[in-house]
Amino acid sequence: MKRTLPEASGAAPGKLFKLVDILTRTETWLRKREIDSPRLEAELLLCKVLDMERLQLYLAHDRPMSNEELADLRPLVARRGEREPLAWILGNQPFHAIDLKVVPGVLVPRPDTETLVDAALEWMNAEEVTYVADVGCGPGTVGLAVAAARPNTRVYATDISDVAIETTRTNVAALGLSDRVAVLKGDLLKPIPNDRPIHWVLSNPPYIPTKDIAGLQPEVSEHEPRLALDGGRDGLDIYRRLIPEAASRARDGVIVEVGIHQAARVADLLRREGLADITTWDDLGGITRVVGARHTGKGT
């Protein structure tokens, strides 16, 4: 199918446009397509094409852009106008204290999920070697952030998606964590051998009710992998499978991310498996985003 490219980054043959002009036109074009932060995203797209930092854009605002640079920019702007996730286009996403490579087909790390990492770091013993299972790892979001923050941590990262597994392995190597992170393809905890210790099970599973997905932003509903989003009729399908398995394998406890209004029901699932000390953490928006539970007698 023929794609109409944005005028924001077009140029007539032989005519040179200043960087600041292209930035302004790109911002306008993205705004018309209802991008939430059109100026910022225009800056980031230009930074990628020109291999610059954002400050450099303004220091070089009168710099003319070549036709080759414009040709590189136009398809990126067009992709964003079609509401493809910006992180896929840029190829990376900052998360917690690390930077993760992301590619089409993997869930883009969200700031909300940093709450899950912070909860895990709060409960884990920083002085002891700790084995963590990151179930449904995506690009390695939770497990790699925890491993980067705690040198004593060993991580099993599992997922059923080939692209997620490949991307996690790339991120493990880039972050220098190959000696502490094993990336395993398979369902939930099944790829982790039964004789391997697991202290904590962490997970950001798919939790969006099926009927709600169509109403989400196009970046999510039309692009991000449904496998990483769809939690079934009430959003709790994976929790019903994961929590019994996690409770039986984890020596210390289980900490999971949840959707809006799901915390109480997930807490009930944790209690049914004999876990106690049920605790919740709110994200920066004040929404209860994480639920954790420990085996009786375990302390911080």
The outline comes out as: elongated
Helical percent range? 25-40%
Number of helices: 11
Q: Give the DSSP E fraction (strand runs of 2 or more residues).
A: 15-25%
Overview of this protein structure:
- The chain is an alpha/beta fold and 300 residues long.
- It folds into 2 domains: 7-82, Helicase, Ruva Protein, domain 3 (Orthogonal Bundle), CATH 1.10.8.10; 92-295, Vaccinia Virus protein VP39 (Rossmann fold).
- Helices cover 38% and strands 18% of the residues.
- The chain has 11 helices and 11 strands.
- It has helices at 19-32, 38-50, 54-59, 67-81, 86-90, 114-123, 141-149, 162-174, 218-223, 237-249, 263-272, and strands spanning 17-18, 64-65, 92-95, 98-101, 130-135, 153-159, 181-185, 200-203, 253-257, 275-282, 288-295.
- Strands 7-6-5-8-9-11-10 form a 7-stranded mixed β-sheet, with helices on both faces. A two-stranded antiparallel ribbon has the order 1-2. It has a two-stranded antiparallel ribbon with strand order 3-4.
- Helix 1 (19-32) packs across helix 2 (38-50), helix 2 (38-50) crosses helix 4 (67-81) and helix 6 crosses helix 7 (141-149).
- The longest helix is centred in the first third of the chain and has 15 residues, at 67-81.
- The chain is elongated.
- The N and C termini lie far apart (57 Å).
- The relative contact order is 0.10.
- The model is unreliable at 1-12 (pLDDT under 50).
